[in-house]
Amino acid sequence: MAVGVFDSGLGGLTVLDALSRRLPDVPFAYFGDNARAPYGVRDADDVYNLTTAAVERLWEAGCDLVILACNTASAAALRRMQDGWIPPEKRVLGVFVPLIEALTERRWGDNSPPREVAVKHVALFATPATVSSRAFQRELAFRAIGVDVEAQPCGGLVDAIEAGDEILAEALVRSHVEALKRRMPFPEAAILGCTHYPLMETTFQDALGDHVRVFSQANLVAESLADYLNRHPDMYGAGTESVFLTTGDPKAVSHKATQFLRRKITFQAA
Question: Closest Cα to residue 3, out of 61, 80, 48?
Answer without folding.
Answer: 61
